[in-house]
Amino acid sequence: MLKLAVFDFDSTLMDGETIDFFAEELGIGEKVAHITEEAMSGRLDFFESLQQRVGLLKGLDFSVVEKISHNLPYMKGAQETITALKEKGLTVVCFSGGFRTATMYAKNILGYDADFSNALHVKDGKLTGLVGGDMMFNYSKGDMLVRLQSILGVSPEETLVCGDGANDLSMFAHAGTRVAFCGREILKKEANIIVDEKDLTKILEHI
After folding, report:
1. For this structure, is 10 an active site residue?
2. Number of domains present in the structure of the chain
3. Which of 10, 134, 164, 168 is catalytic?
4. Out of 8, 115, 134, 164, which one is annotated catalytic?
5. Which structural domain, as residue segments, surrounds residue 150?
6. Which of 6, 17, 105, 133 is deepest in the core (most CB within 10 A)?
7. DSSP of 67-127, one letter per residue?
8. Is 8 a catalytic residue?
9. Positive or negative CA dihedral for 174, 180, 186, 188?
10. 81-111: per-residue pLDDT in tens?
11. Which residues does 201 contact at the CB level (< 8 Å), separation at least 6?
12. Each residue of 173-195: pLDDT tens digit?
């Protein structure tokens, strides 16, 4: 019986990549989106790609970051799926290689129990191009999942994870139910549930 569900945020609970929306404000959307895609497909180290992309955002007003973070398009079925899982007694958590400005705000809208993500460094109201947090490395999600399972007394067999990119692989290693949601090929190979339609409620048909 499942007790814990962990969802990625960008391109899973939210339809798009938060950092790409930020980059569009600076007219470097395509450049940042290309780096994002390389990282999500496993061709680029996640930590290096994150540093590189956030570095390109230096000078962006934090007020703009907050406005974008609070107006993101959530994935179809995200709220309904989280509600259904919680009704089944699951703890639902969000792990994101993205940013707390987005995941913390979405928590109250989508209804998950906790969020673990990264924080953009801000000085004098602008991004400095620096970033820190819980989800900086390729292995971060798996590492945090093991710690969370230990705290909650949940086994891998009682855990569902859901994501779309290469940085979700580390948590796939510690979960019995592994959902690749509109995922990259590198993730689909390790999944035992594959959903290729942009509707998170499709996951509920498999569990």
Report:
1. yes
2. 1
3. 10
4. 8
5. 4-206
6. 6
7. HHHTT--BPTTHHHHHHHHHHTT-EEEEEEEEEHHHHHHHHHHH--SEEEEEEEEEETTEE
8. yes
9. positive
10. 999 999 999 999 999 999 999 999 999 999 9
11. 76, 77, 80, 81, 84
12. 999 999 999 999 999 999 999 99
